[in-house]
Amino acid sequence: MPVTRASRARALGLVVSLGVATTAHAGFTCSSVARRGDVDPAGEVFSNRFDEKVAVSPSGDVLFIGSAGGQRQALYRYRNVGPNGIIARDGDPAPGGSAFGNFAGSRFGRLSINSAGNAAFIARLALPGEGVFVDVGGALEKAARTTDLSPSGGFFVSFPSVSAINDANEVAFIGLTDIGPSGIFRYDADTNLLVTVVDTTATDTLGRPFCSFGEVGLSDAGLAFTATVGVPNCLTPIQGVFTASIAGFPAVTLAGDPSPIGGTTFTSFVRAPETGASITFEATVSGLTYTGSGIFSSAAPATIVAAGDAAPSVGGTVKKLGGQHRQTLAGNVATRLFLRSTTAKQGIFLYDGSPEAGVVKTDTPPVPPFGPSSRYRTIGPPAVDETGAFFAFRAKMLDTVAPGSKTGVLRCTP
After folding, report:
1. Does the chain have fewer CB atoms within 10 Å around its N or its C terminus?
2. pLDDT tens-place string over residues 77-116
3. Which class for 369: exposed (0-12), middle (13-18), buried (19 or more C-beta within 10 A)?
4. Domains of the chain: total
5. Which CATH number fits the domain that encloses residue 145?
6. How far is Cα 145 from Cα 95, in angstroms, rounded to an integer?
7. Domain that holds residue 229
């Protein structure tokens, strides 16, 4: 049976650490953005249905999905300073035709918000299909939608991955097409220009043809993505993490390459890579002494955190990773972790010069508005702005103020 990564690290000292865990849990300072029973900007009362997907800007503006007034799902932008508003609601007309929603399931996703408070998201539509949309200066516009003509040829049929919107008001997405090449496309909301970044007619910097694209990440620091390449063709594709540069599309790492965890190699890459001071990505690794998943950095390269590691601040060990991680431009990483051998159970952790727990299940939600001795039931994955000044997340809570079951969105500072 493979030993844990933590025990192997103690024995061999092979794991690169980004800092020493603190011995006390200082935590974030949090406040409620919106919760069950609050009144939304349209005068309707929030139900207990808030989606796990949230986003936060460097100004502390929060983007979230909630239901109010008869369970109508809507995308909200709540300002840290200034008026709150609704960007789009289920049933509203969508730019380019059709309407948002009108079927079961989440209508909005892949939320992001930049320094100016401009937002990007993907939405499903009443007519079959979906679209990528941006809201710039309060004006909602379409970046692309299914049945639109792709810049590479053919017509879009789906958008499996959408990046964050950067401060240049650009958003990138992966577009699958019917007869044309699929690829990664970038929309500039300032010029209303949609261009191809890379598609399946292109090669990486070593001349390997791209076979398919998985996830894309974009920030002010650049663009990174997961994709498969074929050597010499796409009959036996290899998955990897790549970047976009002036020189082309170099690989950061490929499946089969050695990982920073001694004796293991990368086997697959999941979720979107993040760009900042380095490129960070989530991957599964396998070897004779360890098999598991972790978050890794292109710098060094290094392991940021992996299953089996000691949990910072609160004791216990990491049972598994908990969803999309986020990176600031300075290279600090925030992620949700599920833990074992500790009452903290789960929470948001910040990996910087001194890794620490931000919010864990045993913490008390902010008092007020929640009552004393209230507690978290579940904590969602974090949103973090590119400066690291603000974090946001969805949580389910047991409140000592009736009604006891409350779901809401919280905004925090480290």
Report:
1. N
2. 999 999 999 999 988 999 998 899 854 455 788 999 999 9
3. middle
4. 1
5. 2.130.10.150
6. 10
7. 5-413
